[in-house]
Amino acid sequence: MKIDAKWTLILVALVIVCSIATGGIYVALEDKIAENDFGDGDDIDISTLLPGATDLKKIDIDIPEDGSIRDVQGAYENNELKGYLIKTDTEGAYSTISLAVAITTEGTISGIEVLSHNETEGLGDEIADEEFTNRFKDKTADSLLKLVEEDTSADDEIQGLSGATISAQAVVDGVNTAVEFYNEQLKGGN
Amino acid sequence: MKFIYILIAAFLSENFVLSKLLGIYPAIDVQNRKYPIVQEGILVTTAVTIMTVLSHIIYTLILEPLNITYLATIVFALVLFLAAQLTVLISKNMGNYNNREISVGQLVVNSVIFAAIFLSINQDLNLLSSIANSIGAGLGYTLVSILLADAIDRIDDEAVIGAFRGVPIQLISLGLMAYAFWGFSGLVP
Amino acid sequence: MSKNNGKKISATLLAAICTGLVATTSLRTGLSIGIAVSIVLILTNLIMNIFKDRAPSNMLILFYMVLVAFLTSIIYIITQAYLPELIAELGVYMPILIFSVCIIVQIVSGEENYSINIALKTSIGFILALGVIGIVREVLGKNYTAMLEAPAAFLTAGILLAIASGIFNKKAI
């Protein structure tokens, strides 16, 4: 390809003008876009994850910079803190799985929800079914959870999904990240 | 291990053409094919992979730290062209294909949709997984092109109702192939 | 010449429809992508007229790609701000689709031909086709969820295309 200096410059100028224009429009509409907040947790019904809690509020806490924890909110019932909702991202078999983990102030996992994922249809996507997420219900947050193949025998075990080991392990890892964060930062009030 | 899982998923069980509906046109565009299918497939795979690597690096090292991810599409347009240009250069230097040159435009058409998709989904993936995804998608596209070309060869035009001849029957063949490929789902845990 | 032109449009339209197929799960998504693509396509071709006869021909496609990318980004940003429910449905596919359809349309229709005529005709056909495929899949999908899966998109498009070519009494390509 022959390179025409004059037109290359014009092209560069065009790219710069377009970039600045895009930036300008983005900045102008940024607030409006942020308001819309694409389903990032607003549709979570906290009362199903943490019985008794009625609303979620931002709490003042430092979120680790490695990106493992995306958001932490307090779950309240009439301004009384009942527990926390911790959102984490975890690497599944071939997609990032977004989880919401609810842990009560007493240190029990009261429920988890898979917010988004892109795992295999018919197998890996079972991680989002209640049948699987309910297995985390009422587990203690004192210790980390383990994924087992067979029926669970100990309290810190979660029965896996046949054919979706990696996806299930990813969910357990994600919940453990939330549990660790809870134990380090939130346990016993903040 | 994960590298292979992702590759196989993009290749078979979540084939980009059949289950994600991407890159259908280049696969059915048989009349205008100037290049043998397998070689074209290799070129598309190369272009998409180069493209993914470049855009991944630019995205994570420039756009994200500067908080200007809204410029992704514009940057992507330039990277796409660059990757296509590079692939054409590589194919020329390989020496084998000198008699038949694939044009940059042709290559852009064939890889734009695959490449484009990676810019967005690969934001969450690491570089290695992105590469696996690109190679898988390129190979998947090649496989579907070969299968479809073979199917078209076998379709007896006389037996097809007039209105269905040509593209409609090709699309329907692709649909049936997509059902068959559904059987692969679950191949990767 | 006109016959040649007609063939060009149907090949171009076909390329556009095939690429846009992913957005045809409902009437709304189909129409929105159709309209967005039309806006970008027509505006870009208008602007390209400034460069068409001046810039070296091998650089034209680069100008075209930058302009398409620019308009696509703007449409995406505006949609994010004012039509968030559309983004919830289409997600990241939206800018990708608009961009890819425009690029493919241009390259298939002839690399140095930035004709508004072709852009207009392709746009109208594209909106109609995506709308029809979208409404068929949406209506049937209410009872048969399989209609919303990928294979059904091929079958729907194939059958509708056959019906269309039967009505207009010509081969699709």
Describe, in plain words, how this protein is organized in 3D.
The complex is a heterotrimer of chains A (190), B (189) and C (173). In chain A, 33% of the residues lie in helices and 27% in strands. Chain A has helices spanning 5-36, 46-49, 130-133, 165-186; strands at 55-58, 69-77, 80-91, 96-104, 108-116, 139-140, 146-148, 157-159. Chain A starts with a helix and ends with a helix. By secondary structure, chain B is mostly helical. Chain B is 70% helix and 0% strand. In chain B, helix 3 (37-66) packs antiparallel against helix 4 and helix 4 packs across helix 5. Chain C has 173 residues and is mostly helical. The longest helix of chain C is centred in the C-terminal third of the chain and has 28 residues, at 116-143. The mean pLDDT of chain C is 84. Chain C contains seven helices and no strands. Chains B and C meet through helix 2, helix 4, helix 5 and helix 7 of B and helix 1, helix 3, helix 5 and helix 7 of C.
Structural class of chain A: alpha+beta
The description of the largest β-sheet of chain C is:
none
Q: How many structural domains of chain C? A: 1
Query: What separation lies between the terminal Cα atoms of chain A?
Result: 63 Å
Strand order of the largest sheet of chain A: 1-2-3-4-5-6
Structural class of chain C: mainly alpha
Question: How many separate domains of chain A?
Answer: 2
Low-confidence stretches of chain C: none
